[in-house]
Amino acid sequence: MDEATVKSTMTVTMPPISWRRRALDHAMTGVAMLTVALVLLPLFAIFAYLVYKGLGSINWAFLTQTPKPVGEAGGGMANAIIGSGLILAIASLMGVPLGIGAGIFLSEYGRNRYGDAVRFVSDVLNGVPSIVIGIVAYGLVVIRQKHFSALAGGVALAIMMVPTIARTTEQMLLLVPQAIREAAYGLGVSRWRTTLSITLRTATSGVITGVMLAFARVAGETAPLLFTAFGNQFWNLNPNQPTSALSLQIYTYALSPFDDWHRQAWAGSFVLIVLIVGAVAAVRFAVRRGTLAGT
Amino acid sequence: MGVGITVEQLNAFYGKTQALFDVNITVQANHATALIGPSGCGKSTFIRCLNRMHETIPEARVEGAVRIGDFNVYNGTSATQLRRRVGMVFQKPNPFPTMSIYENVAAGLKLNGFRNRKKLDEVVEKSLRSSALFDEVKDSLHKKSGASLSGGQQQRLCIARALAVQPEVLLMDEPCSALDPISTGKIEELIFRLKEQYTIVIVTHNMQQAARVAEFTGFFLLGKMIEFDKTEKVFTNPSDKRTEDYVTGRFG
Predict the structure, then answer these.
(1) A167 in a structural domain
(2) Do the chains contact at A183 and B81, CB–CB below 8 Å?
(3) Which end of chain A is more exposed for a tag (fewer CB within 10 A), N or C?
(4) What is the ipTM score, two decimals?
């Protein structure tokens, strides 16, 4: 047999694809692309509008000065930027370890009804309106301290972070193959050591995605801060004092009757988005730097 | 040096299902012992009872006595203590994916609190040489992840990782079943050299492999140890009809 006959005997001839199948194929691809565009459109629209409205009002004063009294032009949101950082730092310090710890429990020790109970409670907590969580923090911290504080705001945001982090951590740890844990047990490594140094480490990038998701979500929250951090017209770095936050400042300025404040609210929104995106990108970059080739 | 293993009246369970029935066996120090038998006959369960991996599965339990050297496995000692003396190599290569080659080999010592950098370097190199992998990876010890190696290299990495904690016994659960013939040949050569220093118990589906590497062979069927003898005897002149049927390929 020469090559041509071999080829022809080996090839199965398929019936030609009908125009209907081809048309349907193109139509479905078109629909899929359209939905992607519809999903991305609002995101880009928000970004574009923020740049358009906010970028023009950002200047050195906005980034370095505190708000001016009503009626005076100028001033900035520097204290709110720092305040947001302070509140988020407090929230992360409390929420991240608690959330990861809960996730470890759910994945490594919670394959039973205690775990199911925690999972249920965590999912319910995830659905509680943020203003309600603000009231809880008010009751837990503000009433006891007898004044508003960054700490109270941090507690409110931490409560919001925990369920998201716990559930994503759980999912990420469950993705780590049992064989990896067994490899560690086989070397005589204890269970808790294996969980921390092997399982959690293998799932690091996924866990960090969960943490950043939770962080980004609470970074823009206003409602839980209204009667916890409360806001402040001046500099404050003391966690026990009322503290300004970008979201609070935007809220106040956007509702004001002054054009100048409106512009500053747009500028504040823009800065808030840039800071969140910047923080997420920085963490991702740091994680990637620490990852080996071939993983 | 390797130590002997004595197993008396071993019964293993998964919940209500019994997987092993009254297994008795004496494994010679510094020899390779192969365990053969059809799938689901309890070979893996048996080998996992030797380093108490069986009990990491929920609802699994073990009855009977296992002694490894002067160590009483199911009486008084902790599982982690035991596993430092009984290394294990698994069916599928399972290097720690986020760790470099070096970290993989050093993991057992490091995670058990060993921190002497210079000693670690020595142990890592020695273990990689013992598993015949050193020359292939010496330029990328810290640069490459263990998961970036080929399957055969990964398995040798896992062997090096097990050797690094300096065990007395090495358990191998079908170590070549995911490997090509060349890698399999390398691992078999390795087993040959390693038994000078370690006692080796190897589970295998490949009867030629058992015949090539092991001095002793045990035949399992439906959770029972049917026959245990010198490899040559098991393959050429078995005393049980069922063993004969299996090794001649009449069933299984």
Answers:
(1) yes
(2) no
(3) N
(4) 0.90
Which of A187, A190, A294 shows the shortest C-beta gap to B107? A187
According to CATH, the topology of domain B5-95+169-247 is Rossmann fold (3.40.50)
Please indicate, yes or no, if residue A230 is contained in any of the structural domains: yes
Rounded distance, CA B142 to CA B103, Å? 8
Q: In angstroms, what separates the C-alpha of B82 from chain A's closest C-alpha?
A: 7
One-character DSSP codes across A233-287: SS----TTS-B--HHHHHHHHHTSS-HHHHHHHHHHHHHHHHHHHHHHHHHHHHH
Per-residue pLDDT reduced to its tens digit, B98-127:
899 999 999 999 998 888 999 999 999 999
The number of folded domains in chain A is 1
What is the pLDDT confidence band of residue B173, given thresholds at 50, 70 and 90?
very high
Q: What whole-number percentage of chain A has pLDDT above 90?
A: 72
Asked whether residue A279 is domain-assigned, the answer is: no
Cβ–Cβ of A185/B98 closer than 8 Å?
no
Distance, in angstroms, between B96 CA and closest chain A CA?
Answer: 6
pLDDT of residue A8: 56
Enumerate the residues of chain B whose CB falls inside 8 A of the CB of residue A190.
80
Over residues A146-164, the pLDDT tens digits come to 999 999 999 999 999 999 9
In a domain, A268, yes or no: no
Among A182, A202, A295, beta carbon nearest to B53: A182
Residue of chain B whose alpha carbon sits nearest to that of A112? B58
Q: Do A292 and B95 count as a contact with CB atoms less than 8 A apart?
A: no
The SS3 call for residue A220 is coil
User: Domain limits at A241?
Assistant: 77-245
Exposed/middle/buried for B58, CB within 10 Å: 0-12, 13-18, 19+?
Answer: exposed
- The residue ranges of every structural domain in chain B are 5-95+169-247
Identify the CA nearest to A166 among candidates A221, A125, A131, A138. A125
- With CA atoms as reference, the chain B residue closest to A111 would be B58
